[in-house]
Amino acid sequence: KKKPFAPTISEFTRIRATKSGIFDLLKDLGVY
């Protein structure tokens, strides 16, 4: 159940704001 990789601006902002955000994104992509 992978979601298409199409992050929004807010998602990029969250990732840049928090280091853990990148892991959240990877989890959404099914990497971790």
Descriptors for this entry?
single chain; 32 residues; mainly alpha; 2 helices; flat
Describe the fold and architecture:
By secondary structure, the protein is mainly α. The protein contains two helices and no strands. Helices cover 59% and strands 0% of the residues. It has one domain (1-32). The longest helix is centred in the last third of the chain and has 10 residues, at 20-29.
Form type? flat
**Main sheet record:** none
Note the gap between the termini.
13 Å
Radius of gyration: 9 Å
Oligomeric state, counting identical vs distinct chains = single chain
- Write the H/E string, N to C: HH
Query: Helix segment count?
Result: 2
Query: Which stretches are low in confidence, meaning pLDDT under 50 for 5 or more residues running?
Result: none
How much of the polypeptide forms β-strand, as a percent range? under 5%
Number of domains: 1
Using DSSP, what is the number of strands?
0
Q: What is the share of helical residues?
A: 55-70%
